[in-house]
UniProtKB/TrEMBL annotation, chains A, C:
Annotated family: Belongs to the class-V pyridoxal-phosphate-dependent aminotransferase family. NifS/IscS subfamily.
Residue positions binding pyridoxal 5'-phosphate: 72-73, 152, 180, 200-202, 238
Location of the active site: 326 (cysteine persulfide intermediate)
Protein name from the UniProt record: Cysteine desulfurase IscS
Species: Anaerocolumna cellulosilytica
Recorded metabolic or biological pathway in which this protein acts: Cofactor biosynthesis; iron-sulfur cluster biosynthesis
Cofactor dependency: pyridoxal 5'-phosphate
Gene that this polypeptide is encoded by: iscS
Function: Master enzyme that delivers sulfur to a number of partners involved in Fe-S cluster assembly, tRNA modification or cofactor biosynthesis. Catalyzes the removal of elemental sulfur atoms from cysteine to produce alanine. Functions as a sulfur delivery protein for Fe-S cluster synthesis onto IscU, an Fe-S scaffold assembly protein, as well as other S acceptor proteins.
TrEMBL record, chain B:
GO molecular function: iron ion binding; iron-sulfur cluster binding
One BP annotation, GO: iron-sulfur cluster assembly
Species per Swiss-Prot/TrEMBL record: Anaerocolumna cellulosilytica
Superkingdom per UniProt: Bacteria
This protein's name: Iron-sulfur cluster assembly scaffold protein
Length: 398, 145, 398
């Protein structure tokens, strides 16, 4: 295929043309600083308010509970650090899961260096958090539970409602990193008892460098970034108006098209999963079979190594990933794959394919063919495979 | 930021000016923002406010509330003038932004101060009128979201 | 005039069409996550590197000393908080000035709440920091001096080289908030002994929501935002590629055109200053007469209030500001104007006009006429002016 087949929508997405269209006037025409008095600025203020309303509606939240940030990472940092700061007198214990994004894990580790205690709860072999362990981890000093809505590598969707319920019953704040789930799954912060929720624009066909943190009203969270009085004195810095407007537009479209995208992507996803599992030997689907993001597929191919696989796919114009993009460049196997119990060498051979609504069956059929060829080729060069085959032959008495 | 009515009263403020030998003059300052308003009243023998003028050093909301407040008291009796609260002025202007609510207190207080001046000069007691504060430092106006 | 005359370039600037042009491909074509392995992503990585090089050159720094952030505010927060964290064992004292942006001041206040000690050095009536006071403020426990390059309200440019020298002699780190100066003034971080420098894209006709912090190599500053390994593990979060590319383009143009813009703007600025000072009574120029930003003009008109002035200018299609935009909405008079010694009521009547290269003499002549009319109108309704006139008459024995 001449055209690139982009199957890395969990890393980042293409900004929708309609989103870019919506942003453009705010660069060169209505470019004022929304904090200013004059009319040129009040137009911008209105555009920012509109985006805030759209997002609030998508979560069934109030507009003043939405605070714009520079992205999912900042939102995660803010939620966790500010909770530690505001509620540190109540306790110094935080619960999270072993498969969180680094934005959550590294923030928790930072807090550990400041004297906080963090419990990293296990997940089962499908990546679902162990609720009984979570329950047992709760202490009188627990101030925060932070569990992601859906995982960025294996796509597993967590039992958020149960976790929210547990947090509520124990009067513990509940933060969820919904960076992968927002725009793909329905969510209602009240129904789910979510106190804080992080999201990022570029994961749902919006722009990069913009995100938000939902903070339930009444929480005494302070600012993480100090300065001017923007975002109701809770997040300083001149508002990224084009980014906010683009994010608003992306959410508007994502919500409108949610159902049909889900249906389309689930059909494509399941077809892809079924073909690969039935046509390629020694392969494992990572993540839960059904409680998973509509667009996520993650396989481990035994005996081969992920980077080689990715480069060969790239040579066939297929963009994919072998873990989260933010940590590729790292040589360690994914902490998520290890947490679901994969041995190192199998974790190394993992492939993440994350779809979007524009993908077609034809494209995915091409992808399956190419994966087959490449896996075969890599296995034929793999000493692990050679050993395995020899052992099988011995076992089979040949 | 401001309603059309506020903008109208800001750009064409009614009753700007001074009244020479006014029956009562009141000047109040707002400790919160440093703004100042002065109201002149011309009150006839029947206790009717025949004329009213103002001068204001303040923001758009301060100018507009001064203008609206003078409109609301003009031609009224003293008792009725006392009913012109900051809330009445705000309502008449279709509202003010939350941070600007305190500005409307200037107008109410300036009218009260002018009436107090009138009462003192004429040695009368106006029921329900208390000695005005020259500096308004009202409790934090709750921000409404 | 039908057309808006925008004189609030210190609040934010119009994004240059060439900058938007440069950004566009990175939304919908080359939209990959630069951390990924495939080619689509490596194009982006290159674009990010190019922008980093351009910016490094502008400062005479090395590319790996430039770290992209979400804006000037984040850069200021990072520089100050991370210095406090990294060097807190050496000492707990920070020196800054009374006229810093809130991004610096509120960050310092936050650190005070954590046990740090901060000295806020005075400025003279022109807004220039008192170097002798600064020198005297130095203690054995001083770990950081943070003084802005140029002030956002009154435009005064500080004696950065002297401050850098002082910091160096005393082995204290020196951070400068160059958000207003970068792109308007030449700067060389080595010559000026600057250890950290903050800048923001939208102040120099680049996009909003992007900035950088220059960190001299060898400083042991840690991350402020924790998560993925971006920006050499010092600033997590998916890179805002279009923002970075746009910022790079804006810097490229700003550096190319620096000299001619300076000349043009200084001529316009001085003409505006001279006309207003000579044609309107009871007016004061705030900030230093010559050591000031090429595009900044700031007046105080006695007896009138700033917001009313701004709204009336807006009705004449003139966009201006009465302090920094980030704090309008606040009722307090500007801390900068108070620091240069203005009494409250005069600080209230201040007007900031900040030009750009596109402004013309004709526009500014129109602006002067409108200011004259409006100042006269507002004075005629001002009780302060009334009192002043009466007192003058009495004094003059009329
Ligand atoms: C689950 C999750 N959390 C947080 C992030 C961080 O978001 P961003 O890179 O937009 O800051 C990502 C993506 O990178 C993610 O997938
Ligand atoms: C001197 C100065 N520092 C910091 C900032 C903050 O920059 P930003 O709003 O881009 O975060 C500004 C402008 O708002 C400024 O003028
Ligand atoms: S041999 Fe290259 S990463 Fe292991
Ligand atoms: S801000 Fe002072 S009266 Fe409005």
């Amino acid at each position: 295929m001449e055209k690139k087949i982009y199957l890395d929508n969990a890393a980042t997405t293409k900004t929708r043309p309609a989103v870019v269209e919506a942003m453009l006037p705010f660069f060169t025409e209505s470019f004022g600083n929304p904090s200013s008095v004059y009319e040129l600025a009040t137009q911008n203020k209105k555009a920012v308010d509109d985006a805030r309303n759209t997002i609030a509606n998508a979560l069934k939240a109030e507009p003043f509970e939405i605070y714009f940030t520079a992205g999912g990472t900042e939102s995660d940092n803010w939620a966790i650090k500010a909770t530690a700061e505001a509620y540190g007198d109540k306790g110094n214990h935080i619960i999270t899961s072993k498969i969180e994004h680094h934005a959550v894990l590294h923030t928790c580790e930072y807090l550990e260096s400041k004297g906080f205690e963090v419990t990293y709860v296990d997940v089962d072999e499908n990546g679902i958090i162990k609720l009984d362990e979570l329950k047992k981890a709760i202490r009188p000093t627990t101030i925060l539970i932070s569990v992601m809505f859906a995982n960025n590598e294996i796509g597993t969707v967590q039992p958020i409602k149960e976790i929210g319920q547990l947090a509520k019953e124990n009067k513990i704040l509940f933060h969820t990193d919904a960076v992968q789930a927002f725009g793909q799954l329905d969510m209602d912060v009240n129904d789910l008892n979510i106190d804080m929720l992080s999201a990022s624009g570029h994961k749902l066909n919006g722009p990069k460098g913009i995100g938000f943190l939902y903070i339930r009203k009444g929480l005494k969270l302070k600012a993480f970034v100090h300065g001017g009085g923007q975002e109701r004195h809770r997040r300083a810095g001149t508002e990224n108006v084009p980014g906010i407007v683009g994010f608003g537009k992306a959410v508007e479209i994502a919500i409108e098209t949610l159902k049909e995208r889900q249906e389309k992507e689930i059909a494509l996803r399941d077809r892809l999963i079924n073909r690969v599992l039935s046509e390629i030997p020694y392969v494992r689907l990572n993540g839960h079979r059904t409680s998973r993001l509509p667009n996520n597929v993650n396989f481990s191919f035994q005996f081969i190594e992920g980077e080689s696989l990715l480069i060969m796919l790239d040579m066939q114009n297929i963009c994919a990933s072998s873990g989260s993009a933010c940590t590729s460049g790292s040589l360690d196997p994914s902490h998520v794959l290890l947490a679901i119990g994969l041995p190192h060498e199998i974790a190394h051979g993992s492939l993440r394919l994350t779809l979007c609504e524009d993908n077609t069956e034809e494209e995915l059929d091409y992808v399956v063919e190419k994966i087959k060829e490449i896996v075969e080729k890599l296995r034929s060069m793999s000493p692990l495979y050679e050993d395995f085959i020899k052992i099988s032959h011995i076992k089979e008495g040949i | 930021m401001y309603t059309e009515k506020v903008m109208d009263h800001f750009s064409n403020p009614r009753n700007v000016g001074e009244i020479e030998n006014a029956s009562g003059v009141g000047t109040v300052g707002n400790a919160k923002c440093g703004d100042i308003m002065r109201i002149y009243l011309d009150i006839d023998d029947n206790g009717i406010i025949n004329d009213v003028k103002f001068k204001t050093f303040g923001c758009g909301a301060a100018v507009a509330t001064s203008s609206m407040a003078t409109e609301l008291v003009k031609g009224k009796g003293i008792k009725e003038a006392l009913q012109v609260t900051n809330k009445a002025v705000m309502d008449a202007l279709d509202g003010l932004p939350p941070v600007k609510v305190h500005c409307s207190l200037l107008a109410e207080e300036a009218i009260h101060a002018a009436l107090w001046d009138y009462a003192t000069k004429n040695n009368i007691v106006i029921e329900g009128l208390e000695k005005p504060k020259t500096d308004i430092s009202e409790e934090e106006v709750e921000e409404v979201y």
